Amino acid sequence: MNRSDLIIKLAEQTPNLQAKDVELGVRIIIEQLATTIANGNRVEVRGFGSFGLNYRKPRNGRNPKTGEKIAISAKYHPHFKPGKALKELRRQEAK
């Protein structure tokens, strides 16, 4: 599901709200999540999971095309950890 699918689904489930209001709400929530994570803070949605940043140490790598060694600098990358309720729901659907 992408952002536009989410907006359509939410608009269908809330007929008292206009689609543009639903779109604004989704946009604000996603922007706030992104800003919070980019600032190095963690975001937790109970029953769903948590978003945060993981640190990757600098390391040596190889250019796959030439085989040349290259230095890969340290960086932070976004990470999602599913919550207990989401894990259990996924297990039930897998059965």
Automatic annotation (TrEMBL):
GO cellular component: cytosol
Family according to the record: Belongs to the bacterial histone-like protein family.
DNA-binding among keywords: yes
Positions in coiled-coil regions: none
Keywords: DNA-binding
GO MF, one example: structural constituent of chromatin
SUPFAM superfamilies per UniProt: IHF-like DNA-binding proteins
Name of the molecule in the record: Integration host factor subunit beta
Organism: Sideroxyarcus emersonii
Keyword flag DNA-binding: yes
Xref: InterPro entries: Hist_DNA-bd, Histone-like_DNA-bd_CS, IHF-like_DNA-bd_dom_sf
